[in-house]
Amino acid sequence: MLDQLDQLKTQAVTDIAASADENGLEACRVKFLGKKGDLAAASAGMRDIAKEEKASVGQKLNEVRSAITAAIDERSAALTANRDAAALAGIDATLPGKPHPVGTLHPLTQVLDRAVSVLRRMGFALADGPEIETEWHCFDALNTPADHPARNESDTFYFDSGKLLRSHTSTVQIRTMETEPPPLRIIAPGAAFRRDEIDATHLSNFNQLEGLCVDAKGSVTLADLKGTLEYFFHAIFGDDTEVRFRPHFFPFTEPSFEVDLKLVIKGQKPKWVEIAGCGIVDPAVFEAVSQSRGDDLYSPDKVSGFAFGMGLDRLAMILFGLPDLRLLIENDVRFLRQFA
Ligand code: DAH
C-alpha cells in the first residue's frame, strides 16, 4: 500500500509538472485530488488494511496529498508567470507613459486675470454693463456729438431698434455713475465691437479694459492717472518697460492722452505701440450723468476724475509676442497649447 502511494505521488508530480496550461493542470487536480480521484480511491482502501498499518498509511496519505497540492500550486504559479511574460513580450515597460492632455486658460484670459489682479491691488473694483447699448450711453453721455465719425454707420453695428453694439467699454463709466455714488474706482473688462476690416492688428469683436476713478473735486489729478498707468504697465510688462504719454483727443476726457509702450522683440528694432487712451474726465460727462441721475452728486463742481481704456487683445499681443491678433480667435490648438 505504501509503495502504491509513493507511485501515485511520483506519477502525480510528473503529470502536474508536464501540464501545458491551466486546463491541463485542472484536469490533473481532478484526477488526483478530486472527489472521485486517485487519492480519494486510495483513502477508501483504508477500510481493508490491517490495524497496525493504518497509522503509517494515514501518514503517507497526508504526505502524498500535501506533495500533490504543493506541486499544483507551484505549476500554477509558473503558468501564470509564463502568461504574464507572454503578454508583455515586445513591450518596454520602462518607456515613459503617454501624458494626459491638460487644458489651459486662453492667453486672453491669462492677460485679463493679470490685469485685473494688478488693478484690484490698487483699489479698483470690477464693474460691467451691457454689450447692446443705447446711443446715449455709447456716445451722447460721453460727450461725443452726433456728427462725430465714431457714430458713423460704417463704424458701428446698429440694430433696427436704434440700439448698437458698444464700440468701447467707456459706456460702463456712465452705467456705473448712474447707479453708484462717488467716490468710485472701477475697472470694466469686456467686449467691444467695430466695423473694422479684420487684419493682423484689428478685430471687429475685440476686448477692452476700462478704468474710472472719481473723487472730490481737485483730489484726482493727472499725476494720479500717470502713476496708476505706469505702475500698471510695469507690473504687467516689467519695470524696464518704457511707457510714453502722447497728447491726443478723446471727446470724454480733457486733457487726453494716448499711451504707448516700447515693444522690444528679440532680433527686431524696438518700436512704440499704442496700448491705451486716457485722460481727465471731461466736465461734460459729469453733466450728462448728473442730468440722468437727477441729482448733483456728480456735479462737475463737486467731483473730478480720470479714465482710461486699453485693448486687452493688444496687451496679449505684446505680452506673448504674437504676430497676429487673429491667432486669438482662431482656436487652433497648436497655438493655444503653447500657453499651457
Ligand atoms: N474708449 C476709447 C477707445 O475705445 C479708449 C479710451 C480713451 C477710454 C480715453 C478712456 C479714455 O476711458 O479716457 O478708443
Describe the structure.
The strands form two sheets. The chain has a seven-stranded mixed sheet with strand order 1-4-5-9-8-7-6, sandwiched between helices. The mean pLDDT is 92. Helices cover 43% and strands 20% of the residues. It is built from twelve helices and nine strands. The radius of gyration is 42 Å and the shape is rod-shaped. With 340 residues, it is an alpha+beta fold. 3,4-dihydroxyphenylalanine binds at residues 168, 170, 210, 250, 253, 256, 277-279, 307-309.
Q: Topology, pairings included?
A:
Layout: H1 2-18, H2 22-33, H3 38-44, H4 51-88, H5 107-121, E1 125-126, E2 132-133, H6 135-138, E3 164-165, H7 171-179, E4 184-193, E5 205-216, H8 222-237, E6 243-250, E7 253-263, E8 271-281, H9 283-293, E9 303-311, H10 312-320, H11 327-330, H12 333-336
Parallel strand pairs: 1-4
Antiparallel strand pairs: 2-3, 4-5, 5-9, 6-7, 7-8, 8-9
Helix pairs in contact: 1-2, 1-4, 2-4, 5-10, 7-9
The protein binds 3,4-dihydroxyphenylalanine.
3,4-dihydroxyphenylalanine is lined by residues 168, 170, 210, 250, 253, 256, 277-279, 307-309.
Quick take:
By secondary structure, the protein is an alpha+beta fold. 43% of the residues lie in helices and 20% in strands.
| Tally of DSSP β-strands | 9
H/E element order: HHHHHEEHEHEEHEEEHEHHH
Largest sheet, in brief, is: 7 strands, mixed
Low-confidence stretches: none
Distance between the termini: 79 Å
The total count of helices amounts to: 12
The bound ligands are: 3,4-dihydroxyphenylalanine
This entry's quaternary arrangement is single chain
- Rg, Å, rounded: 42 Å
Average pLDDT taken over every residue: 92
Strand ordering within the main sheet: 1-4-5-9-8-7-6
Cα shape: rod-shaped
Secondary structure class reads alpha+beta
